[in-house]
Backbone:
């Protein structure tokens, strides 16, 4: 089965927007285009339901129901329970709140392992706990490859290790870490895992039950939806954490980790992402299936399409001896988040030429300062980042390769 790209792209207004015509979008790791189902829900909410929620009058009652529907539909797709889903303003803020909620679970001198492959969102807040008596143990990446090595992790555990924080897929290195295996290692040592799934989730929602992480976070503005962070927290953990909300919210698990009060409209509209996924499923498959099964089928479809494009891009990049690829050079264990460094050209000039070719890319360190430092890569100017998703076409990859050729050869 092949992904029907025309159908997929018809679900994203950006692809028929006149001002974007001709521009190929390769900064998806920074934020994806939103799907029309989400935009429709958001607009509708603002038009019809923008009142305080959960009163008995119809507009308010429906507003509450729409929010509930998002918790439920996201939980079903991720194969977890509704009570385990938390929506906060962003992943950075979710981790910050989480770190404060979890600190009281630990004693002075307890240890947490924090990877050096993370975006600062899943790094800084944990390291700040050093000021509150927690010993931070750093899990460095291999300088040559940028990979996190499991043998190195093995040696970092002690009988005081309480948690391991690491990314499912780094936003500059692109390698997919074996979350299940790492979680099993952590659990054997009595430690929890906190996984940043922001880089991974746009390429296919994980089956969180199968993955086995205790806490998993990602950002919905990178998965076709609103500017919110979604956090899965295994249900038995909330009761052990310190309430971060108003005192009278103690015991209300949905509130305890979201002190700011959630954005009602955006939460209500988040189920538009699932509407989109359902539409793609129904377009490609006849079989009835549970949301988790749909998700698995879609993942395969998305992955195959992305891999075909990624192979074409990596073939080109490998054929050039003036390009350094950061992270794995083949598509097996990586996602299409490809950072490159043009060896003998000024990276900013290369970037400018690419923009002239209507290529929308990223440049810089992308808040992934620690992995780049471990790899001895200058964070200024940083790397050129090419990131794409299942809605990207081979024509766009060809446009990118043509632009790269000009930028590198002039
Ligand atoms: C891998 C990764 N983790 C975390 C974040 C932070 O997410 P947010 O903007 O929702 O705080 C980003 C944002 O770019 C990211 O790429």
Residues:
């Amino acid at each position: 089965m092949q992904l029907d790209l025309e159908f997929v792209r018809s679900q994203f207004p950006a692809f028929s927007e006149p001002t974007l015509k001709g521009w190929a979008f390769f900064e998806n790791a920074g934020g994806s285009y939103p799907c029309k189902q989400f935009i429709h829900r958001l607009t509708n909410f603002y038009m019809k339901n923008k009142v305080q929620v959960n009163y008995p009058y119809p507009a308010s009652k429906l507003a509450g129901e729409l929010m509930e529907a998002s918790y439920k539909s996201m939980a079903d797709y991720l194969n977890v329970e509704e009570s385990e889903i938390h929506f906060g303003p962003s992943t950075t803020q979710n981790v910050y709140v989480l770190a404060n909620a979890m600190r009281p679970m630990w004693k002075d001198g307890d240890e947490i392992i924090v990877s050096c492959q993370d975006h600062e969102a899943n790094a800084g807040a944990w390291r700040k706990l050093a000021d509150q008596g927690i010993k931070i143990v750093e899990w460095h990446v291999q300088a040559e490859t940028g990979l996190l090595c499991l043998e190195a992790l093995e040696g970092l555990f002690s009988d005081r290790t309480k948690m391991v924080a690491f990314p499912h897929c780094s936003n500059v290195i692109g390698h997919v870490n074996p979350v299940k295996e790492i979680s099993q290692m952590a659990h054997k040592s009595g430690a929890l895992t906190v996984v940043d799934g922001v880089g991974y989730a746009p390429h296919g929602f994980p089956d969180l039950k199968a993955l086995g992480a205790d806490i998993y976070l990602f950002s919905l503005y990178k998965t076709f939806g609103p500017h919110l962070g979604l956090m899965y927290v295994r249900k038995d953990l909330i009761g052990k954490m310190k309430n971060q909300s108003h005192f009278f919210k103690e015991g209300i698990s949905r509130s305890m980790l979201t002190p700011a009060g959630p954005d009602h409209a955006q939460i209500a509209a988040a189920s538009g992402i699932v509407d989109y996924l359902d539409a793609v499923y129904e377009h490609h498959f006849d079989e009835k299936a549970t949301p988790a099964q749909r998700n698995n089928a879609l993942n395969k479809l998305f992955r195959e399409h992305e891999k075909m494009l990624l192979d074409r891009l990596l073939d080109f990049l490998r054929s050039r001896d003036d390009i350094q690829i950061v992270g794995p050079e083949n598509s097996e264990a990586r996602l299409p988040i490809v950072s490159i460094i043009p060896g003998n050209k000024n990276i900013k000039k290369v970037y400018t030429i690419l923009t002239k070719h209507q290529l929308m890319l990223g440049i810089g360190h992308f808040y992934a300062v620690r992995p780049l430092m471990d790899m001895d890569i200058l964070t200024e100017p940083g790397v050129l980042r090419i990131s794409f998703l299942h809605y990207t076409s081979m024509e766009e990859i060809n446009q990118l390769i043509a632009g790269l050729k000009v930028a590198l050869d002039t």
